[in-house]
Amino acid sequence: MSGEADTGILVASVRFQQTGKLYDFDARGCADLRVGDYVLVDTTRGQQIGQVAAIRTLKTVDKSLKPVLRRATGRDLVLRQKWQQKEQEAKAAAEAAVRQLKLPIKVVLAEYTFDGSRLAIVYATEEKKPHLESLKEKLEQELNVHVELRRVGPRDHAKLMGGYGACGELRCCSRFISEFCPVSIKMAKTQGMSLNPEDITGMCGRLRCCLAYEQEQYEEATRLMPRRKKRVRTPYGEGKVIDLLPLKGIVVVQIEDHRLEVPLEDVELI
Questions:
Q1: At residue 1, does pLDDT exceed 70?
Q2: pLDDT digits (tens, 9 = 90+) for 36-88
Q3: Which CATH superfamily is domain 77-152 in?
Q4: SS3 (DSSP) at 65
Q5: Domain residues of the chain, as ranges?
Q6: DSSP string, 172-235
Q7: Strand partners, 42
Q8: Which of these, 95, 149, 189, 264, has the minimum number of CB atoms within 10 Å of its CB?
Q9: Per-residue model confidence (pLDDT) at position 33
C-alpha cells in the first residue's frame, strides 16, 4: 500500500478574513504546516494569502480541491500589505463613482488579489438587479485593474461593518461566527421570547443569530413538558398552562385567578 493510503490526505482549512468562512485545500505538498501559518493558495479569484485555521487528515477528498501552493514568505506578506493599503484608495474611488453615477448601492469594501491583478468591490443594495456595468467599466478604466462586483446580503454586510449589537457587546458575526446558520421565529417562540421585532431582530434587520445558540437545549427541555393552553392537574388544583420555563423545569399554570409556577414533576396532563 502507498504511504498516502496509510496516512490519508492532509487537508488545511484556510480563512481569508479574521472571522471569514473556512475553505479546504489539499495540503499534501506542505506536510509540515501548522495552525496559524500563512499560506499561498489558488482560488477561483486567483492566488490569495490566507491563514490556516485547522489541519486534518481525510481518507478521501473532492478531486476539485485546490492545493496549498506553499507557505507564505515574508516577502509575500509585505506584498499583501501593500495591496491592502491600496484597498482604501480603491474603496474611496468606488464610492465616488457610485455617487457620480447615482447608483442605488453601498460600497462595503474593496479587496485586491495577492498579485493585484484583480479587484473585488463588495457592495450591498436593496434592489434585486441593479445595473452596474457602468460602474465596472469606470473603475477598470480609472484603476487599470480587472474589477469584479460582489453583492452581499444584510447579515454579511453587518459582519463586515462590525460594531456593537443590541446586547452592548461586539457583534457575534464579527467576532466568531464563520458561517450563518438558519434562524426562525419558531426558535423565539420555543424560548418564550417576546415576538416584538425590536427584541428579536439584529442590527442587520434579520432575526438575531443568538436565537440559535440555546435552541437545542430548549427543544430537549420542552420535549417532556405540556403544551401551552393544555389543562393540567397540580397539587394546587386543576388549571391551564399559560407559559413554560424549560431550562428551570417550571410550568406556569393559571388556576382560577392565580398564576403559579409549578415544578414539572408535580404537573399531570388531564
A1: no
A2: 999 999 888 888 999 999 999 988 877 788 999 999 999 999 999 999 999 99
A3: K homology (KH) domain (3.30.300.20)
A4: coil
A5: 3-72, 77-152, 157-218, 224-269
A6: HHHHT-SS-----HHHHHHTT----HHHHB-TTSSB-GGGGTSHHHHHHHHTTSPPTT-EEEET
A7: 47
A8: 189
A9: 92
